[in-house]
Hints:
Elements: E1 9-14, H1 24-30, E2 36-42, H2 45-50, H3 55-75, E3 82-84, H4 88-99, E4 103-107, H5 112-127, E5 131-135, H6 143-148, H7 158-166, H8 189-193, H9 255-268, H10 270-274, H11 295-300, H12 305-321, H13 333-350, E6 372-374, E7 381-387, H14 390-401, H15 407-419, H16 424-434, H17 443-453, H18 459-469, H19 486-491, H20 496-501, H21 521-526, E8 530-531, E9 547-548, H22 555-572, H23 579-582, H24 586-590, E10 598-601, H25 614-629
Parallel strand pairs: 1-2, 1-4, 2-3, 4-5, 8-9
Antiparallel strand pairs: 6-7, 7-10
The structure holds a DNA duplex.
Amino acid sequence: MPQQSPPPTVIFWHRTDLRLHDNPALQAALSLNPSTFIPIFTWDPHYAYRVRVGPNRWRFLLECQDDLSQSYHKLNPKQKLWVIREAPQTVFPKLFESWGATHLVFESDTDGYARERDETVMKLAKEAGVEVIVKSGRTLFDSDEVVKHNKGEPTMSIHQVEKAVEQINNGVPDRPVDAPESVPDPLGEEEMRALSGVDHEVPDQEDDLNAAHRTKHNDNQYKNIAGPNGDFSIPTLNELSIDPSQATSPHHGGESIALEMLRTYLQQNEDFVATFEKPKTSPAAFHPQATTLLSPHLHFGSLSVRKFWHDVQDTLQQRESAHKPTSDIPTNLPGQLLFREMFFAAQAALGPVYAQARGNKIARFIPWHLQSNHDEETGLVERKYTIDDEQAEVWFRRWKEGRTGFPWIDALMRQLKYEGWIHHLGRHSVACFLTRGGCYVHWERGAEVFEEWLVDHETASNVGNWMWLSCTAFFTQFYRCYSPVAFGKKWDPEGLFVRYYVPELKHYDKKYIYEPWKAPVEDQKRWECRVTGDGMVEKDEETGLTTYPEPMFDFDERRQTCIAQMKEAYGVHLMGDDEKVMDGSWKEVFGYEVKDGRVVDETNERVDGDGGDDEGGQKRGREVGDQSGDDGDGGHTSKKKK
DNA sequence: TGATCGGTTGAAAAG
DNA sequence: CCTTTTCAACCGATC
Length: 642
């Protein structure tokens, strides 16, 4: 450091890097030898209100923050994670001024919103004379670099990713850097607290995408810029108006947990790590699951992806020199991480339109039901979508709630909701079922449900996989449909997975566990569950028994219809950035009719039964009423076709 | 240019 | 019960 310059006062901005180990940006910050070091997290209203986040992921995030804060505290009793409750776009000038910052350091983030946010903040820093340092660290390789080595184009196959990263350090990610052994002090308590005196911008809660999860209409998470006690505390679920009992997932956040999980796999399950092949892991395995469950830690950065890669790679190399079996790219663990790189780089190349069909040049246009509405100014999806077909809306609701009448699908959707995680192939099953292999509903609807419920939700991977499964991009073999019966049976012939997550069926013979509607009525009575209705009726009127819904359609018939429609759409061959998609004239091309033109606002839609409040509830009530009205022979819903 | 082949992870029937 | 073949047939890279 030049002797003349004042000792740096460094603000370190944590975002999706909630860890101390292998944090290149943190290392860069500390190598400035700051006299003052303030690690912060900005509790961004964008995430609080404009991103779908269910109770399980809220809890996971808070646990990551708690763990990180404790780790800082162990290194320096004056330290912790300082949480600031305001939008970064408005709060940074106040932080710079109030704390006299000289540097702002953070890890780069290539998400659509994040890029825009960071550009704004960098501009504000420049205006305040604060030096900004940004380091890549969220992915194995800097996604912008990967794109550059892919001719500036989105990465569309693993082969392209391999070729691109070969040109960056021969395809070997940087070695992980160690966690710091000490961190400097923050400012004194008085000086830190001085921030509470500044004007505080409280965000508008009107467009709260997560209203359905809150116990109160107006939460108080933004009441004070430094939290309720003015001490920059990490929010609690109660402060977010989220009932803690709604966070039912067994999966917990935090760097300590993540590192311990990785260590355990490597030490106690070397065979599992070394011979891992994703397609051979069971989507029906639960408690414990068949894969590592490290994905949510990669999302929040409580585990470094480079540490994961190198630790696994070291194991693979040791095994190879010992002539023990190993698995290969792309099905092995490093290969799985390459798919993550692929989706990140594709997103980095395309920006915000990556996450939607309209305007997205890699997305094949398919005239699915329940198309999104778009903001006229930005062209980006808004929370509203158009119900062109009442039947499709009912199917979508039943899919989301796990009452389709197909036990394999329902078990997966219920596991997703309660645990915040389902196996990758389970995601394939339910995604294929909702889109091209069943309901013919837009993949954006499904991606939104995953966004809400997954603890490991990562926009790049989630959207990428939804496009993959719906044959929108990356994958095109639409005649390969996952059967909701055969696929589950293949992995779990006894139906243990279904019995656990759909306990209504726990006494059913394995012969009928995936097709309970085929069981004779006498057996249904013996097994204490009647297959009848749409899942909204708890007790069968006639027998008083628990019910499980009849299948909401004839799957084989739907598969045929969907494949024929996919074939037609592929024949028309419109991409998301085609003029006809942009101006809406695709409707004429496909003879797409909007029968009632209703627009649904997803915001306050409750999914747990009886409707909730406001307009959302009314709509649902009507749909549900219609359904149970003709449940006498519910399978007949499938007869409706175009 | 047209043919060939591969594509992380299919399903159902036949052997 | 296991493996192999057929099903119906897509895109994009490659030669």
